[in-house]
Design a protein that fits this description.
687 residues; 5-stranded antiparallel beta sheet; alpha+beta; 34% helix; Alpha-Beta Plaits; single chain; elongated
Length: 687
């Protein structure tokens, strides 16, 4: 109220609207610094928006670049095959070797199927106890009826327990299925009773032996009732009646090579090619032709060209002159934004470093060229020739590529920091695996009739720090050769539950010169060893496998471009900080050295460049942080300006109030003087 009275009183003496004048003077004082703040804020906000525009456009470009660096982009394969319902290719990995494969399906793999005597109801009790399932194969008579079971030493034994909680036909079926042993159980009503039907995994060596141990009784597997009704072994009368289908391997011929497999899904014959066998067709040859999927690769290359041109179009407003608004884009003079375009153009126009085994070194060799406006255009003739005649060079030009002059030195991987180039690798210490070599076998161990009947060949191993259970060779087995004995020992070792859990495997070999068996770890390096913890008397006497420590493995050692690297097992890594840092090389046991070449390829370089700009805490994030801090600073400056203007306005206001007070005083004094003059003699207006 007081302030309003003061404001109203302004101008009373001078006749000037001092309140309006103070406001105008304050606005004039505010205009210049406020204009600078507003201009900087507008620019910062526009740059944040335009950097967001660039990031969005670059993200689309990144997708097209990643499609070229991915194996599925340039290394995708296609397959064609002659019309047949015998087999069909179902999967092609990028590592499939292009070529033509002739295939003949002679027989399909089959699963052994067992059907047991029926019960009136699926809920009827079956008896309590334990069923034991073993996998292997059955020797058969002339009618293919099973006679003697031969267990697979490498296969795991499974048990199924039936007690009061699951004592029914349904409970038995569920218990078998829940055991996750690859055996499927079902109940089928045949019109007179409910039968338990058991199907083993497919394959001749995946057949079943089932033994029963009744609860509290010594198992005989011949009881008419109880769990023994579901036993399947050579002690069972009428065993042939239980088996409805025998297990069998698939038989096929590929490029003249006869093969057998336990499954009708073939994944390990042609690397990277998966086949489904549909029916046996002896005499029918199916031709499968695998080739590079150039159409798919061409689609990805053209996709990159379109994406790059779209990127330039999307970011153009941030750099060009807007005629409608009559101003330039906010990033016209921004060094970071301009460097994006400059560095992209540099990669597009330059030769790709590290390519030593390709006739193509730049995009122009592929027919992709830069136009005057910066966009890319494909010369269709050159592009078609490159794709048709030099596709391998196109792959090397665009995608990351490595090669080695030595077959026993291969590049396993590379890192973001790995620089393209050639690197001389010298191996000073080849890698080795840990092993244990037994003493000479007893002279009584002779072949082809080495019989384990009545013997106990068992031992416990410590491989790479994992101690096994007791490992035993099958009893009552006859080995016809040292290779067969070594294979049986290897299967028994690799089947050990603790080794399987720890990912431990070993190889067993026979040395004819020393007449001894060697057990070698599959791992390389100083963390690789094979020690015998304990062994049975027969294993010590006959096989020479006695308690003792073997020989540890050795880590690889070598140099990369003359600088010692770091070796772990059979992997050699260059020293940190070197140009080759991140290059992981797998070294063979007989390696001496070689030259390794590494190229990121055009797409790899572009991917790395895009990553520098767009990655978390990358260049774009850093610039946005700076711009956001500028906005915060501008808010602070505006707050300070507002305080200064408030003070300035108040100061002017007080000054004008003082001026008006003086003028009011002068006016009052003027009236007094006039009255005084009028009252003086000879000055009165009345005289």
């Amino acid at each position: 109220m007081i302030e309003n009275n003061i404001i109203k009183s302004l101008g009373a003496g001078s006749g000037i609207d001092s309140g309006a004048l103070v406001k105008q003077l304050t606005e004039i004082e505010r205009a210049a610094p406020q204009g600078r703040i507003d201009a900087k804020r507008e620019k910062a906000e526009a740059q944040i928006s335009d950097f967001g525009l660039m990031a969005s456009a670059m993200d689309k470009l990144k997708s097209s670049v990643t499609a070229l660096t991915a194996k599925e982009g340039l290394y995708s394969k296609s397959a064609s095959y002659t019309d047949s319902d015998a087999l069909v290719p179902t999967k092609l990995d990028t590592n499939v070797q292009p070529g033509t494969y002739s295939m003949e399906v002679k027989a399909l793999a089959a699963s052994q199927s067992l059907s047991f005597a029926g019960l009136p109801s699926a809920s009827d009790a079956v008896g309590e106890g334990v069923l034991t399932f073993n996998f292997g194969s059955w020797d058969r008579d002339g009618n293919n009826d099973p006679t003697t079971f031969v267990a697979d030493a490498s296969a795991k034994t499974y048990t199924v327990t039936i007690d009061s909680t699951n004592n029914s036909l349904n409970g038995l079926k569920d218990a078998i299925n829940k055991a996750e042993m690859g055996v499927q159980a079902s109940i089928i009503f045949d019109g007179t009773g409910h039968r338990l039907v058991v199907s083993a995994p497919s394959g001749a060596n995946k057949e079943l032996q089932i033994t029963a141990a009744e609860a509290g009784d010594t198992p005989t597997n011949t009881d008419a009732g109880g769990l023994s009704r579901f036993a399947f072994n050579d002690a069972i009368a009428g065993i042939a009646d239980v088996e409805k289908q025998m297990g069998a391997d698939a038989e096929l011929v590929i490029n003249g090579l006869a093969l057998t497999r336990s499954s009708n899904k073939i994944t390990d014959v042609v690397q990277g090619l998966t086949l489904d066998l549909l029916k046996a067709a002896p005499g029918e040859v199916v031709t499968v032709t695998v080739s590079d999927d150039k159409t798919f690769a061409e689609e990805k290359i053209r996709g990159f060209v379109d994406a790059y041109n779209a990127f330039l179009e999307e970011v153009e407003p941030a750099f060009s002159f807007n005629k409608e608004e009559e101003k330039w884009g906010s990033l016209r003079n921004d060094s970071l934004a301009k460097s994006v375009l400059t560095r992209f153009r540099s990669v597009i126009g330059a030769a790709i470093p590290g390519l030593t085994d390709s006739s193509y070194s730049a995009l122009t060799n592929l027919g992709i060229r830069t136009q005057l406006d910066g966009t890319l255009k494909i010369n269709e003739d050159d592009f078609e020739k490159a794709m048709s005649n030099n596709f391998a060079d196109v792959q090397k030009l665009l995608a990351p590529h490595t090669n080695s002059s030595a077959s026993d030195i291969t590049v396993n991987s590379f890192g973001k920091q790995t620089q393209a180039g050639s690197y001389d690798v010298v191996i000073t210490t080849p890698p080795s695996k840990g092993y244990f070599t037994g003493a000479a076998m007893d002279a009584g161990v002779t072949f082809p009739n080495f019989d384990t009947t009545g013997k106990s060949y068992s031992f416990t191993l410590n491989i790479n720090g994992v101690e096994s259970n007791s490992i035993a060779l099958p009893t009552d087995a006859v080995y016809t050769s040292t290779d067969e004995l070594a294979a049986a020992m290897q299967s028994a070792i690799n089947a050990d539950a603790k080794f399987k859990e720890g990912g431990i495997t070993a190889v067993v070999t026979y040395d004819a010169d020393t007449n001894s068996m060697s057990i070698t770890s599959s791992r390389y390096g100083t963390n690789s060893w094979v020690n015998v913890v304990s062994a049975s008397g027969d294993a010590i006497t006959d096989l020479g496998i006695a308690q003792g420590n073997g020989t540890k493995g050795v880590n690889v050692a070598g140099t990369v471009n003359g600088v010692p690297g770091f070796g772990l097992g059979n992997v050699l890594l260059p020293k940190l900080g070197e140009k080759a840092e991140g290059l992981s090389m797998i070294i063979g046991e007989n390696a001496t050295g070689g030259t390794v070449n590494f190229s990121r390829g055009f797409a790899g370089q572009m991917e790395e460049l895009v990553g520098q700009f767009m990655q978390t805490n990358g260049l774009f994030d850093s610039r946005e942080d700076i711009l956001q801090r500028q906005l915060v600073d501008l808010d602070d400056r505006e707050t300070r300006l507002e305080r200064r203007m408030t003070a300035f306005h108040e100061r002017l206001l007080q000054q004008f109030i003082a001026m008006e007070s003086i003028l009011n005083g002068l006016n009052s004094q003027g009236g007094f003087l006039e009255n005084l003059v009028d009252s003086l003699p000879f000055t009165s207006s009345n005289k």
